[in-house]
Amino acid sequence: MKINQFAQLHPEITTIKNELNTIGFPTSATTTTALFKNFLQTIFWQFPATSDFYAELDQYLATPSTSLGRFIKDKESITNEVFYLVALQLLDFEADDDFQIESPIASMKNLGLFTLNNIKSTNDLVTAYYNLLNTHTKNGLTLIDKLAAQGYYTQHHFKPNQQLIFNGKAQATFLAQNFIYETVYVQTDFDSDFDGKNDLIKVEITRPKTNMKVAVAYTASPYDQGTNDLLGEKLTHNVNVSLTKKPVKKNKLMQTSSLIRGKKPLNQQPATNATHTHTPKPGYTLNDYLLVRGFASVYAAGIGTVDSDGLQTCGDAQQTASTIAVIEWLHGDRTAYTNRTDYIPVKANWSNGNVAMTGRSYLGTLAVAAATTGVKGLKTIIAEAAISSWYDYYRENGLVIAPGGFQGEDADVLAGETFSRSLRLGDYQKIKPAFIKELSHLTSGQDRKTGSYNQFWHNRNYRNNLKNIKADIMLVHGLNDWNVKLKNPAKLWRGIQQLPISKKLILHQGQHIYINAFPSFDFSDLVNLWLTHELYNINNQAEKIIPNVIVQDNVKADTWNSKPNWLSQTTTNFPLVFSKTQFKNEIAPQQFIKYCQNPDKWQTDLLNPRNDTLNDNRLIANININHDTTINGNVTIKLRIKSNQDIGMISALLLDSGNANRLQESPTILKKNGVQLGYRWYTDDLRELLQNKQQTPFKIISRAHLNLQNRHDSSQNEIIEPDKFYDVSFDLQPTYYHLPAGRKLTLVLYATDFQMTIRGNQAIHYKIDQEHSSLDIPFQ
User: Fold this and answer.
1) Is 237 contained in some domain?
2) Which residue from 215, 383, 186 is spatially nearest to 297, judged by alpha carbons?
3) Which parts of the sequence belong to the Xaa-Pro dipeptidyl-peptidase C-terminal domain (predicted)?
4) What is the pLDDT of residues 225-256, one digit of tens each?
């Protein structure tokens, strides 16, 4: 096991003493022995009686042969070995499994934990236990957070519900029992359901009870008020359809705004406070973690959801406007009402006006959308697995492409699924005709027939408006996320490099997941440091201390490294040598049916070189690197290829080949409810990406798809003459991949992707000109 901490600050001794005094820890004594005892009495604050205190200390070892209780009674001298043996136990690490009793300092270093070289003076000891309080335990919390979860800050000498900053981070000093739960309805400037009135958006607020104005962690989640899964299933598209010839054309693209204005109601006398409440419920556990640390948690499902007005429009300007309307109210620039009918205004007079947006997938996507408006009050976004262009989510290079695991989904399907107003029949009947019309527009506009980039997708490409971004950005994405593929964060990251904002990137080895309860990585601490700086203007140097790029290694478990940047511009060219030069699309009808029913079986057979079921449907080329290296960015495929018809598509997979115990892509729960987010508050499951115990022969590094009619531009449909060679160049999804010595790269070319593309089983045959086919690889 290894702990990687990027949010641990190491200030000067004067700052250390001031901060320790603030949280009630002793900083002065005549000897290190006396100071160590005082430190332990503060740690074990729940045992004030002398007998209880020493009984508790006797549960720990100070040396391999002496209990901590006996050691303190005998007033033995403190050494590095004693301090760090005690430290390992306080941090919940287990002897023999995590550390060796006889070598605590070496064990600390093996675990990646910070140590002082020599503890001689009282100042040394103060520094050592300051660092210890900010060190992660085995169970995903720092030691001070563990104490807070036990109720440390409920002691009488602390004022409840007051902000404390320690090691640059807001402390868990706010009591969940005192939280305030409110609901308001924010007025927008548009009428997306065409009822003649501007849409109202339901907003649910959970905030600490305090006399200070608090900052906000805001999550725009279209799923928050429920989903209509049956409607989503009904709308899901059949993917067993043929690839068709597109008319030769170039789609014209314009910047447009589709906001429909309605009437604003006349306001009544303002209310002092919100009058509606909501039922407490666990949300995104990062927001729950922040709540007890003095941040309000705000959720809004947006237009087309239960208790809000409007229609679901899946990523267009109206949904963006719905998202930022909440920020504008929190910042004091917009009206909200106490209920949906009386139009009694209410202000967010508890808010300090500073907002961060959080969330994964669709939630993170709306954070990106909001940032590209430059809305006032939005100080930062923490966008996890976020879409930056909806075309790059549902399409690729002129092809309809499914998000991983969701064949047949599209913009209209997602709109129907998240249109939770349809679950309230009385409300639904009033807007059913408008919804049916909107759904028809979505289905037509998304154009599954061609898969080309058009105005519909241009309106949902947030990268068109990057110049408007004023908020600092933290992007988090899985390098094995085939749902929101890596083109989304990569193009966004590249596009913001010249903007005068702070920007951070975290790439992990998971799929479409959250990473805020991994013991190996202090993500929640890092976010706390970031938001304490961004939203409370605390000068904790977060923008300098947090590396610009953090990447989880795919070879070594529990290893996270800071990197100079992502997306290398320098590439090395490798010729592609295939065992044959031709492959076909169609397969036997019975086999086709089986693969449609079980696409995972198709992938297994495709990538198994010893299975010849699909031998005529693939080309395989191996590239031997022969040394340890790292791929950083987009691998580019260059092919000279022809089709025997006037249509064609090509798919590609890049593999890391060679038997190895690879890292898992889905986290394993190490301890159910193992992370206590605060005192008498919600929990999270402690989880981690573990090393596979069994070896696997390969791993998918990246993949790509291309419609040959869109070989130059996804918005430009070009002609294909049968049996004519064309030069094509297209990128695989970007990656950051550590390839160890002794392993090789394998490129697999094929046509239909049963997991992602349409499946027509057409008799299309392809031929490659090997002498004009190669791979450009961006090595670190």
Assistant:
1) no
2) 215
3) 528-776
4) 999 999 999 999 999 999 999 999 999 998 77
